[in-house]
Amino acid sequence: xxxxxxKAVTRAGWWVAVALLAAPVLAVAGAPVTARGTQDLVASxxxxxxxxxxxxxxxxxxxxxxxAVRDGGLPGAKGAGAACVNCHQRxxxxxxHQSSGISSGSAVNQIPPxxxxxxxxxNAGHDxxxxxxxxxxxxxRPPYTHETLARALREGVDANGRTLSSLMPRFALDDADMSxxxxxxxxxxxxxxxxxxxxxxxFATIVTPEVEPQRRQAMLEVMEKFFAERNSxxxxxxxxxxxxxxxxxxxxxxxxxxxWALHVWDLSGPPSTWGEQLDRHxxxxxxxxxxxxxxxxWAPVHAFCEKQRLACLFPNxxxxxxxxxxxxxxxxxxGTLLEAGLIGAxxxxxxxxxxxxxxxxxxxxxxxGEAGAQALARTLRDKGIDVRESVLAQGDRDxxxxxxxxxxxxxxxLWLRPPDLAAMGDARDAPPLVYMSGLMGGLERSPLPVDWxxxxxxxxxxxxxxxxxxxxxxxxGWFRIRGIKLVDEQMQTDTYLACGLVSEALNGMVDTFxxxxxxxxxQSMVEHRIVTGYYPRLTLAENQHFASKGGYLxxxxxxxxxxxxxxxxxxVP
Length: 573
Known about the structure:
Structural class: alpha/beta
CATH architecture of the largest domain: 3-Layer(aba) Sandwich
Oligomer: single chain
Helix content: 25-40%
Radius of gyration: 27 Å
Strand content: 15-25%
C-alpha cells in the first residue's frame, strides 16, 4: 500500500490497509494477493468489527455486556460504561482526566494511547520517525505482545510486570474476544493517514448545487485567503527528522511544517447521487478532513462523512443532522432545529396570560424550514397544542392564501426566505402571536413589511449585535484588509471561525494528524477560543456535535431599521 505509487488511496483502501496490520501474515509490497491472503483479510476485518463493538459500545460478540472488574474482584462499570472509548477515546490516543478526592485533592491523570502502533512498536516512544508524540505515551517500557496485552487487560499487569493504576479496570475476555479487540486496536491511527503527505495536509470543502454562485464564491474567497496566508507563514516543508530518543518529548522538537491544500468538491444533481459523487472525489483526492462547506440539505454529506470516517468540521448549513450516535461531524449550531426549540420555548412560556392552543406553520416543501417546522410540531403536539400547516410548493405564489388559512389560530410561525417575507402584504388578519426563522429570513436585515415587523418575534440563534461587536470586529477587519467583499456577513464570519478553529487544533496536535484525534482536540480546546464571531461562547464535550447551544427570541425596534431587542435572556432549549 505505497501511496507514492498512486495519486489516491480510497478510504475503502485504508480500511483494507489497517486490516492488514491485524492479519497473521503481512502482504509483501507488489506481491499478488492469494486466495488464502484474501481469506485472511476478510477474517481480520470481521475480527476488527467485533473488536470495535467491544471498544466503542462495550458489547461482546454474544450480545452480552462487557463487565469491568475493579480491585478485589468487585464489579465495576458494565456495557457502554465499561467501553474502552470512555478513557482512551475514539482515536485510541488517550486523554487527560481531572480527578479530585477529599484526601488527595485534585489530580491530573494521563490516559495513555492504546492504538496498535503505540502498544506494539519496538522501543515505544523512541522510533519517532514513525511514532509522533502524544500526551501519555510511555517511552520507558518494552513493547507489548499479544500475550502481555492480554495479561494487562485481564490481570492489570503491564509489559514491565508492574501493576497498573487502579483507574484501569480488568476484563474477563476470552481468547477470541481478546484477539478481536487487538485486531481493532491495530486499525487505530494507521501509519498512512489519507490526506497527509510529508509536506502537505489536504482538506476538502463541499458545496451543494442549490447554493447561489455569489455565496459560494464568498465562502471560497475566505478559505483560499486563509489557507494562502497560513501557508506563507509556515516554514518550507522539511524532510522527516528523527528525534534523539533520549526523551519522550524529542519528537515535538522536530515538527514538520506542512502546507495546506484545499480541494473544492462541487456537487450536482439530486441528493440521492451525492454520496457516489463524494466517493469519487475522495478516491481522486484523499483528504484529512472536510472544513466548512455550504449547503441547505446536508444529510447526504453527513452520511458520507460518517460512512467514510472522515472528519466534517463546522459547515455552513441551516439543517445539520442531529444524530447522537455519530462521531465524525461537528457543527457550530443546530440551525433551524435550534430555532424550533427557541420558538417552542416562546409559545409554551408559562408566563403567558392566555395559553396557546393552536399554531399555524407556513413553509416551502423541501426547503430548510421543513425540518424546523417538523421539529417544532413534535414539541408542540407533545404538549397538547394543535399544529396546522400550509406547505407551499417551490414556485407556488399563493402565499397570501396560506397566510389567510391560519388567521383563526393563536399563533403563526413562518419558515420563509426574504423574497416571500417581502411579499407578505399587510398583517390585518394575522393571529396575535407571530414568529419567524431568523436564519432563513435574513436576521435583523429581514425585508419584512412595516406592519409585520411591529408584531414579529424572531428566533435568533446568535449573540445580539451590540454584544458581539468586539468578537466580530477581528474577522471583519481581516476581510477588509484582504479586500474580501461582504456578501453574507454571518456565513463568511463562520467560515473564518471554522478555519481558525481547525488551525489552532492542528497546532496543538504537533505531527499526530488523524481525523478522530482532530475531533477530540477540537472538543477539548474550543471553549478556550476568544474570537467566537457571532456566538457568545462555544463549548464541546465528548459525544457533543453542536458548539453553540442557545439563542434569543427578539423583536424589532419601534423606529424601523435593523435594531432588534431581546424578549428575554439567552435560551438553551
